Amino acid sequence: MSIFDVFDRISSKSPAPNGKIEYVIAGLGNPGMEYEGTRHNAGFAVLDMLAEQLGEKIDRLRFKGKTAEVTINGKRCLLLKPTTYMNNSGESIVQALEFYKIDAANLIVICDDISLDCGKLRIRRKGSHGGHNGLRSICDLTGRDDYPRIKMGVGKKPHPDYDLAKWVLGKFGKEDAAKMKESSENACECIKLMVQGDTDQAMNKYNS
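The structure corresponding to this sequence follows.
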């Protein structure tokens, strides 16, 4: 790598954050190589893509998760990938919210959704957990359901009797992986709008 390549990598990084963390942006998933690329890790994939766009890595261990501090459109944000496994995601998120004294309204959660076709997005300001165990944990431990979330469509089970765990822990085929890449790019754009207070614009532009 030449000195010019090094300079390009440094200059592409997001500006050094200053001031108080204003948003916690949490992507849900399961830690470990065996879960990479699975449907349940759609939230992790979005955060990794966002961090890459900002020239950062989510690798600082804090709040029972992996984190990175970034600046998005002038807002200081914490990117958080809980390492508690999906069903206990709220443990990590509550620690971060309490540490920074951030209201749940300034929490943005990205997760998979098997009720949506692969590649579709659904942005919501609030709502029930809808049976998603990661969202259930967050709702239970915060006592709130009025936090914004971006639901990543990963496709429905092939048939009603198909094992749910096997489905969400399965990996995408080539065609669906391409759809997820595009929807992850759109989710990153949603996040950039949402931290500016433009959630309505994100919903109007990207909701499926």
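The chain is about 35% helix and 20% strand.
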